[in-house]
Amino acid sequence: SQQGEEDPQALSIQEGENATMNCSYKTSINNLQWYRQNSGRGLVHLILIRSNEREKHSGRLRVTLDTSKKSSSLLITASRAADTASYFCATAPNQAGTALIFGKGTTLSVSS
Amino acid sequence: EAGVAQSPRYKIIEKRQSVAFWCNPISGHATLYWYQQILGQGPKLLIQFQNNGVVDDSQLPKDRFSAERLKGVDSTLKIQPAKLEDSAVYLCASSPRTANREKLFFGSGTQLSVL
């Protein structure tokens, strides 16, 4: 089953603009992670935010987590053409030994 | 360090045929996962190994899919017989420890087309 639901499904922006993607989930979590997938490739881990954290930064990435609303957002600032990819949120359930559950993803297209 | 290796990259078969995929995780990674990713969707877990034992195979269609992890290192996933709806990318991932709450390292996947 898929727990995370990303919004929007697709996003098209110009280089230099910011891109914001949202993720909602259903059950309690230990942490939430974001991954990027370039066309025809595997997923690459971007950032992990734990349930007791509210915001985290990594380079041009900013992730927020609101456990009361069961939602997270990923902000990519000053987008580049190379950011064109699909982005997935994945939740790590509280139950020990349970694998990550991925959402359906947001497809980001950055044009120059 | 070397990444997760998968082969083949592409496979085209006819329905009812059998197919096998191979994965070699990052050296020392205890946990190995097989995910199925249908076009336009996120990865869905098929099976999770910890060392050479199965942790979770609840979403593996066991009438046609099987998987093993030899000596707790590399793994094979087999489909026999394949159906049209098995067309997907099969992703292998690994993680260092057994907490199962940390980041995953993915291979490039095997794209399967069933005709």
Give a structural overview.
The complex is a heterodimer of chains A (112) and B (115). Chain A is 0% helix and 57% strand. With 112 residues, chain A is mainly beta. In chain A, a hairpin with a 7-residue loop joins strand 9 and strand 10. In chain B, the strands form two sheets. In chain B, strands 2, 4, 5, 6, 9, 10 and 11 form a seven-stranded mixed beta sheet that branches. In chain B, strand 4 and strand 5 (44-50) form a beta hairpin. Chain B starts with a strand and ends with a strand. Chains A and B meet through strand 4, strand 5, strand 9 and strand 10 of A and strand 5 and strand 10 of B.
Provide a quick synopsis of the model.
Chain A is globular and about 45 Å long. With 112 residues, chain A is mainly β. Chain A has strands at 5-7, 10-14, 19-24, 29-37, 43-50, 55-58, 61-66, 71-76, 85-93, 101-102, 106-111.
Helices and strands in order:
The complex is a heterodimer of chains A (112) and B (115).
Chain A: E1 5-7, E2 10-14, E3 19-24, E4 29-37, E5 43-50, E6 55-58, E7 61-66, E8 71-76, E9 85-93, E10 101-102, E11 106-111
Parallel strand pairs in A: 2-11
Antiparallel strand pairs in A: 1-3, 3-8, 4-5, 4-9, 6-7, 7-8, 9-10, 9-11
Chain B: E1 5-7, E2 10-13, E3 19-24, E4 31-37, E5 44-50, E6 53-56, E7 65-69, E8 75-79, E9 88-95, E10 105-106, E11 110-114
Parallel strand pairs in B: 2-11
Antiparallel strand pairs in B: 1-3, 3-8, 4-5, 4-9, 5-6, 7-8, 9-10, 9-11
